[in-house]
Design brief:
The structure holds 2 protein chains of 2 kinds. Chain A is mainly alpha-helical. Chain A contains 16 helices and no strands. In chain A, α2 crosses α14 and α4 crosses α11. Classes of the chains: A mainly alpha, B alpha/beta. At the A-B interface, α9 and α10 of A face α10 and α11 of B.
């Protein structure tokens, strides 16, 4: 009754549409109470939040820029999840993926742009995937729990990056641990620049062409998981390992494959942040996106369409929240984090809380029909 | 024998019934056990023994019926009610915390306060008394997980006695024990009986019933079919009432025309996940054009044998030959390679292994063959072909509903089994392994499945059937091998086999010892 499995006889939309909407409504309801408690008008707060996220071109640009990051990390978590693995290491994989992006942009900037772009994407996937490979190998061959190892690899990634930035990659003669700015030829065009080429004016924002790559990744992920034999193997191992073994699928190889793809997807965050926005390699550009990706994947039910919607929601919360903190003094940055936390709590941890209540009308009707 | 006459019976069950969905696990069961006796309950797997004991111990609540303990009506709705009524249970799978010491395990749930010290001290004294009184020697400070299973079982018994049990239920207690450990257990049970404890022993091993019990009840298909005094009965009589005398599901088949051996097994030894040898030095062959049946009570090595033959479980010793290839401890082959050697496998437990309940039916219908170029383009899987392929199989095997897009878990057990059978049989294998072909399958589907298997045999294929259903083995197989305790204890041509004879062999008794009883 209260398990995650759909109950037969209940229409699918109850799970796909009604449940997330009700969860979200509950989260916003409680958020509203918190806002009241602080002494602000919840309706006013919602208005500012929405306006801040979608009200003007720059806001939309920022929202979609955040969304891009959440799509990458959400897809990363989802791919691993289909294999029955909880990849908590998106943060570290994104960090190292960004390192790959930075190195490619620094040292391959002589390439023509299309080739450079391909190299950057390959480097992000390679570095992110490699960082996920080690925990995957340890899980597959040694049984070390992936949750523990990926968490530890987040710390390792952070430490490694500090070392590299402070000691190796830092631009000589300056204080902050950053590389030189990339050659302008190695910058991923911003959305406002790209739109200008086709004669559309758009306000300046960090939104860049990696957004398109994120959407392409959604399609690729969907095709991989549901329309290839490798995706079949991934889902089989995640669904029932004994059956997978019976079917001649090697769980170890499949776990490694799924985690490497997961790490590669997380690594693409670097394409957005490093090649698209910062144009230099620096510290802490992952800013927790890897962790929020877990909530995005959970909310999006590990399906690319759901992930896009959930990523958009979190993108809007990030951008609208920033605007809110700016406009309403009592709604500090921390209050916005509280709202985000409530969304994660209700859509993630308490995902199935309302399930019995939402199913009840359909089950009751069926009983009446049977009687 | 225990005290007779005036004293009320320790246990009195009247009219107990229990239904799980469509399955009537217990039907109007009555049972009386006198105080201070050992009472055996025998029956095949699925006869309802464990359900009945779970009702007595409060895991399930009976749909109807009454329980009296020491003559008093007793409402047992949860295990704590049973414990309060003086009932203790030793489960087939131990309920112990491996990392705790014996003492800690015994105290668990009966700590007697927020702070452990007082309860533990009391428990230590009490345990030492129990160990002395009942000859239950265990090092109470040893870590439970490090003890051999025989000793872990004693911990379970101690646990029950510590909670004041005067009635002890043991569910298949010797299943995990060596013969020596089993003998020791019987000495302990004898000691308990002398102290006035009432023991209920659930088992399918007739030898144990004869050796230790005072009275015995036989269950079959959810009903009590006999209450007997052990000294007045025989193994043969028990075997017969256990297996039953019902009409065979007749399979219409011509005599087999066996050809060359297609699958040969020599000196095969296979271990389970815990490293215990479950298949011990067995040899047999299956010829093209015959069905060989392996009979036996579940848990006597059949599962491990099937898994080894299918490439899922490594071989420890000996070898398997098939299509000119050998599988040995050194030469491992995974299930994929076995399929390439034209071996197909319908696993015993379809839900655990044969299918993925959360997959669409068409996806489950290609498990193991998902790499086949027929289903795949260079990158993308050709889902259209897969669905069409599944549609065809569903028509052929009359799977209902015939919707390839429905989740596999949404089909009934019988239809799930048809999906697995269709997948494996339609590959036209040379050797087909089938575990429990009709477990949980309704009558109509059983006949259909049997006909398909016989048709495959008549097409010159070698088929190995493992089933715990004697009827099924007898009607389906051309030759019957009986497995007991990892060995093949006998081989009979199906035409000459009788249920009594097979029942005895399944209980580990050589029928030649009791030849006069089986005409």
């Amino acid at each position: 009754m209260s398990g995650p499995e759909p109950t037969p006889g209940v229409p699918k939309w109850v799970y796909i549409v009604a449940m997330p909407v009700v969860n979200l409504a509950a989260a916003f309801l409680v958020s509203g109470l918190v806002v009241l408690l602080v002494g602000e008008d919840p309706l006013e707060v919602v208005k500012i939040l929405l306006w801040g996220a979608f009200g003007f071109q720059e806001a939309i640009g920022y929202t979609l820029y955040y969304t891009t990051n959440f799509i990458f990390t959400g897809l990363a978590v989802a791919v691993a999840f289909h294999c029955g693995l909880f990849n908590i290491g998106g943060e570290g994989q994104a960090y190292i993926g960004g390192l790959g992006v930075g190195l490619a942009c620094l040292y391959l900037d002589f390439l023509p742009f299309p080739l450079l772009l391909l190299s950057v994407i390959a480097a992000a996937a390679l570095f992110g995937g490699a960082w996920a490979f080690i925990p995957a190998y340890l899980q597959a061959k040694r049984g070390s729990h992936i949750v523990i190892t990926t968490i530890m690899f987040n710390f390792l990634a952070a430490t490694l990056m500090v070392y590299l930035m402070v000691n190796v990659l830092i631009e000589p003669g300056q204080m902050s641990p950053e590389t030189r700015e990339f050659d302008a030829a190695a910058w991923l065009p911003f959305a406002h620049e790209a739109l200008a080429w086709i004669g559309i004016g758009f306000a300046r924002s960090p939104l860049n062409l990696s957004f398109l790559w994120a959407l392409i990744c959604c399609v690729l992920m969907w095709g991989f998981i549901w329309h290839t034999r490798w995706g079949y193997a991934v889902r089989a191992v995640g669904g029932n390992e004994a059956a997978a073994v019976y079917g001649g699928i090697s769980p170890a190889r499949t776990i490694i494959l799924a985690m490497c793809i997961s790490g590669a997807l997380a690594g693409f965050l670097g394409v957005n942040e490093i090649m698209g926005v910062q144009h230099r390699l620096l510290l802490d550009f992952t800013a927790g996106y890897g962790f929020v990706g877990i909530a995005v994947a959970l909310m999006g039910r590990n399906h690319p369409v759901g992930i896009c919607l959930a990523a958009l929601l979190f993108g809007a919360l990030y951008q609208g929240g920033a605007e809110l903190a700016f406009e309403v003094p009592k709604m500090t940055r921390d209050m916005v984090v509280v709202i985000q936390g409530l969304v994660i709590l209700f859509s993630g941890a308490l995902e199935f809380m309302f399930k019995p209540y939402l199913e009840a009308p359909f089950l009751r009707r069926r009983q009446v029909g049977a009687a | 024998m225990g005290p007779e006459g005036g004293a009320p019976p320790a246990i009195e069950l009247t009219g107990i019934s229990k239904r799980f969905g469509a399955v009537q696990a217990n039907r109007d069961i009555s049972l009386t056990v006198a105080k201070g006796t050992i009472h055996g309950i025998v029956g095949e797997n699925g006869a309802g023994k464990s359900t009945l004991m779970s009702i007595l111990y409060g895991f399930y609540r009976a749909d109807s019926g009454e329980i009296r303990i020491d003559g008093e009506p007793c409402r047992i709705h949860a295990p704590r009610d049973a414990i309060a009524a003086g009932i203790g249970m030793v489960h087939q799978h131990f309920m112990l915390v491996d990392t705790f010491t014996v003492l800690e395990n015994v105290v668990l749930g009966a700590e007697g306060g927020a702070l452990l010290a007082a309860g533990v001290a009391k428990a230590r004294a009490e345990l030492q008394r129990l160990e002395r009184d009942y000859a239950l020697e265990v090092d109470i400070d040893a870590v439970t997980g490090t003890l051999p299973v025989g000793l872990q079982q004693r911990v379970e018994i101690l646990k029950a006695l510590y909670r004041g049990a005067r009635i002890l239920i043991l569910d298949e207690p010797t299943g995990v024990l060596t013969p020596q450990e089993a003998d020791h257990l019987f000495r302990i049970l004898d000691g308990l009986r002398k102290q006035g404890v009432t023991v209920i022993l659930i088992t399918h091993k007739l030898r144990e019933i004869m050796a230790i019990t005072d009275t015995v009840s036989v269950m079959r298909r959810g009903e009590m079919v006999a209450h007997l005094t052990t000294s007045e009965t025989t193994k043969e009589q028990l075997a017969e009432s256990m297996v039953g005398r019902k009409v065979l599901l007749q399979v219409d088949k011509k005599p087999a025309q066996p050809d060359e051996p297609a699958l040969a097994v020599e000196h095969l030894t296979v271990a389970d996940d815990a490293g215990i040898e479950r298949v011990r030095d067995i040899g047999f062959s299956v010829r093209a054009g015959e069905i060989v049946g392996i009979a036996g009570v579940a848990g006597n090595g059949q599962s491990e044998l099937l898994e080894a033959l299918a490439g899922i479980r490594p071989v420890r010793q000996g070898c398997v030959r098939l299509s000119g290839a050998e599988i040995t401890a050194e030469q491992r082959r995974d299930p994929k390679e076995m399929r390439r050697l034209r071996l197909a496998h319908v696993p015993e437990d379809r839900q655990r292994m044969g299918l993925l309940t959360q997959f669409e039916a068409n996806e489950s219908a290609i498990l193991g063959y998902h790499d086949d170029p027929a289903y795949n383009g260079p990158v993308l899987m050709n889902r259209g072909t897969v669905v069409k392929d599944c549609e065809g199989k569903m028509g052929l095997y009359d799977v209902r509903p015939d919707d390839p897009l429905l989740k596999t878990g949404g089909f009934s057990g019988g239809n799930q089994q048809k999906i697995v059978l269709a997948r494996e049989i339609e590959r036209d294998p040379d050797v087909l392994l089938v575990g429990q072909p009709t477990r949980g399958v309704d009558i109509g589907a059983i006949e259909f499945i049997h006909r398909r298997l016989v048709a495959l045999r008549d097409a010159g294929k070698a088929i190995l059937v493992v089933s715990v259903e004697l009827d099924e083995i007898m009607s389906l197989a051309d030759r019957i091998l009986v497995m007991f305790d990892g060995r093949i204890v006998g081989e009979v041509a199906a035409a000459e086999a009788t249920e009594t004879m097979l029942g005895l062999m399944m209980a580990g008794i050589d029928p030649s010892e009791t030849q006069e009883a089986t005409p």
